[in-house]
Specification:
By secondary structure, the chain is α/β, with parallel strands linked by helices. The protein is 33% helix and 16% strand.
Amino acid sequence: MRINAPQDGQSTTAPAPVSKGRGLAVTGGFFTNRRIHRILTLAGLRPSLVPPKSAAGVLAWGMSPYAKRAEQIALRHSLPLIRVEEAFLRGLQPGRSGEAPLGLVIDHSGIYFDARRPSDLETLLRHNPLDDAALLNRARAVVARMQRNHISKFSATDPNLPAPPAGYVLVIDQTQNDASIAGAMANKSHFTEMLATARADHPHARILVKTHPETRHGYRMGHFSTDPMHGFDANMTLVDSNHSPWVLLEGAIAVYTVSSTMGFEAILAGHRPVTFGAPFYAGWGLTDDRLGPIARRGRTLSRAQLAAAALILYPTWYDPHHDRLCEVEAVLGHLEARARAWREDRDGYTAYRISKWKRAHMRRFFHGPLHFASGTATAATTGRPMVWAAHSERTEHLLRVEDGFIRSNGLGAQLIPPLSLICDDLGIHYDPSRPSRLEVLITAASPLPEALRGRVEDLIHLIRKQGITKYGLSSPITPALPPRDDRVRVLIAGQVSDDASIRHGAGEIRNDLALIEAARIRFPEACLIYKPHPDVIAGLRRGGADAAGLVDHIITAGSPAKLLDEVDRVMTISSTFGFEALLRGVPVTTAGMPFYAGWGLTDDLLPRPERRKGVQPDLLSLTHAALIAYPRYYDPVINSPCSVEVAIARMADMPRRGTVLALMDRLNRLRKAL
């Protein structure tokens, strides 16, 4: 098979883009999906029912049957034809599930899956230099995130399903009559040939045939079944389970496809798939093309170049949290959060000893069945048993829930619901007497892969720039401090007296007064500045110390983030404020053993647990584990799981924050009174 000259008089270069701001003639389908209509409108290609003589062009949905009418209108009125399709990261489920897409490809010359004529993607792959180092590094980081978090075109998969024993040949099925098959100049017979060739090439290997998600859901038929009439024998297995494509690709010794998007993912996973059609990723030196060379695609590309074009330059991506177009990284953040919630929540929970005011928020936060119960948590429940960590018993198979390290615009004691929660299946981060899931994540992230470091660096920069602390945006007021002298400034971060992190993670120093006395001994010449816990200052929790005469200054108001800019060291028992200091480059001394201590990043008065010896995470590894991998985040605006970046944006997007918090505080006080 040779693909040479374009057909139907098409040019080999993309036509000039349609003038934005003018209406585009369309068929009715572009109005039934609000998300598609919105993405096109934001891209300047607003669907409209204007007469063709007044239109700037005509929109067609891929190569669907409805596209025929659009093609006829464009031809009759000499209008540009723009083909639209879903991008390569669609969402959790196939489109027939009703889920809206997160991106579109908007092609002015063809469509990526139709090799019979050039597309904008093919033009990019043929003519764009694709040699920008920053672009290629972005592409590598995107691929690394997809693999690490098991994100693919349809991400409602279970990475924890037991994988078949490695060493098999993976054959990828597709749905019958899919437009991408005809567009790749293939047909049903090519699937039969593909299976026979895979068996001939690997006569002693097991053959795994992966069905399409739409086939597994019963939406459309595939090409294969276990019927011997389809060529199946005892050495072949039809895989219609919910495995992650990345898991299946990892165990494969060879991959065969006609034109599936999973063939593209196989390339990203390091394979050189065998193709029996002409998909967009074939013909660039990255595939074994059994049906002949694709002469029009004679260029040799790297995996990073292919990923850069297909995932960064070609699609138009949409951010549902901010209702705007975005880069692919924002879509990955959204997909990672939603896929994690789907995977963890789909079997449901039974929650024990949860305060009544927390229950409504937890129902929104957890997207599976959630039942509340009283009594002692046991494993014999509907769904997985969970309990608020402060009330946790040492019970196996118990999920302990706690606020995350970036919590909310306001204090938990004010009954303000959190934007993040931690769900720990091993222990809890503030109890160093036993392992926690956070410890495991810190160890696994040490060292953090290079492709993931850029996101963490950006996150730390964002936290510093926005002045983010655990309880949201800092006050704009700079705390009043005495004039600087030659002494080192040590900030003593107080805690509430009954805090769980003190009960479980402190040594002999267990209150603010003892901490102040220890600070004076350890730093006898320093200027000591004492900051009681916000809950204590607000009169909501017990704690604090009568520090007059023991310290040089006491801070009760102003921005904690700005305060960190004015001190040389922080000393605390186990406060999260110590972690916030590390994020801002301030040295920290701990009198307890919080999650960020014992790794070589802090000056610790207590000996580190044996589990933390021999591991030397840097700040980026610690931050990735603590702020990305460990917590889950929730966007109350669109009622959806979200990334840490979106949670921070929700804090920053509240110009009337003070008024809102005042109203919420009044409401919560009324709740307490009832």
